[in-house]
Amino acid sequence: MAEIVIENVEKTYPGSVRAVDRVSLTVADGEFLVLVGPSGCGKTTLLRMIAGLEDIGGGTISIGGRVVNDVAPSERDIAMVFQNYALYPHMTVRRNLAFGLELRKVPPREIERRVLEASETLGLRDLLDRRPKELSGGQRQRVALGRALVRQPLAFLFDEPLSNLDARLRVQMRAELKRLHRRLRTTAVYVTHDQEEAMTLGDRVVVMKDGSIQQVGHPLDVYERPENRFVAGFMGMPPMNLIPGTVVTDNGGPCFEGAGLRLALPASAAPGDAVLGLRPEHLSERAPAGPHARLALRVSVVEPLGDRQDVTLTTPTGETVVARIDARTGLREGEDVLLYADLARLHLFDPSGGRRDRLAAPRELAGV
């Protein structure tokens, strides 16, 4: 078993800076868990506490059923891959892969077996006699992964390992990591600030802010049902449109009014101030089959992205709205357009606490 259990863990730095605030979390055996959040949210500090590189200010961490609060990093049976490749420049790829095993007194024949197996898995077999300066960035990162892989640890810990790679290599390495984990099924905790990495890699994602967990769940659940405004705005690029307004009663039912927009809501929506949430891809130039609203907007900026385009628009009151629509739609900056909002994808947030109201499917729009 390589389950990781984190119970009420906290970390405070000098100056009363609370980096991790009583976090509790369980990483299942064989799970690939992603910690995601902005810089300074505490995700790397939490990972380093799991690794033993940071002291724990309170709470407990268990790996494989053993409390490791006072266990040295080298005795925790984990392998860590950093953003910095941290390869030995004077050693060949073979020696870089084997060196940690040599220090642990692993028999030479077993070292050779593990090195060859890892190099085959990661496509390094023809690079074993090269030194790091003779490798590309993607190849160096694969060597760093291989060095962790040969350890055969209870768990892998990844600290933004793909941040130094260009966009194309990041996509390739994400696919390699996903295939590798599917084959090994070793417990893994992965830290990133990149929402796309979190969505594509994680069995579950943990969204963090200011040292606290905001939401834990399957990537699509977190994306489609964010618990609060922070998660809604952080997960997704472009982020969710968040429009302040008020829920009023109209024609016997609740209706959202704000930024010159008017949208009918389910009967369960309570009157009062609210923030409307709608993702850019849920706005379109064609009316969806289900309940929808028409939005009269003015095009401000058009950003072509190949098969699609991100369009920044303004509402009648000057609020900004972003839509992600088909690139073949010939929108021009400065023109007035009519877009449609899919009300089945609507979110409503409390403006003070930011929590999401759990709305049922919206009724038909009463008016625009």
Uncertain stretches of 5 or more adjacent residues: 360-368
Number of helices: 8
Number of domain modules:
2
The assigned CATH architecture of the largest domain is: 3-Layer(aba) Sandwich
Strand content: 35-45%
Q: What's the overall average pLDDT, rounded?
A: 88
Secondary structure tally: strands? 21
Order of helices and strands: EEEHEEEHHHEHEHEEHHEEEEEEEEEEE
- The CATH topology label of the largest domain is Rossmann fold
Strand order of the largest sheet: 6-7-8-3-9-10
Radius of gyration: 25 Å
- What is the highest CATH level, the class of the largest domain? Alpha Beta
CATH homologous group name of the largest domain:
P-loop containing nucleotide triphosphate hydrolases
Structural class: alpha+beta
What characteristic shape results from the CA principal axes?
A: elongated
Distance between the termini: 57 Å
Helix content: 10-25%
Largest sheet: 6 strands, mixed
Task: Provide the fold topology.
Blueprint (H helix, E strand, L loop, with lengths): L3 E10 L3 E11 L4 E5 L6 H9 L6 E6 L2 E2 L10 E4 L11 H11 L4 H14 L15 H13 L5 E5 L7 H18 L2 E6 L2 H7 L2 E6 L2 E6 L1 H6 L4 H6 L6 E10 L2 E6 L2 E4 L7 E7 L4 E2 L7 E13 L3 E7 L5 E7 L9 E7 L4 E3 L6 E2 L11
Parallel strand pairs: 3-8, 3-9, 6-7, 7-8
Antiparallel strand pairs: 1-2, 1-4, 4-5, 9-10, 11-12, 11-14, 12-13, 14-20, 15-19, 16-17, 16-19, 17-18, 20-21
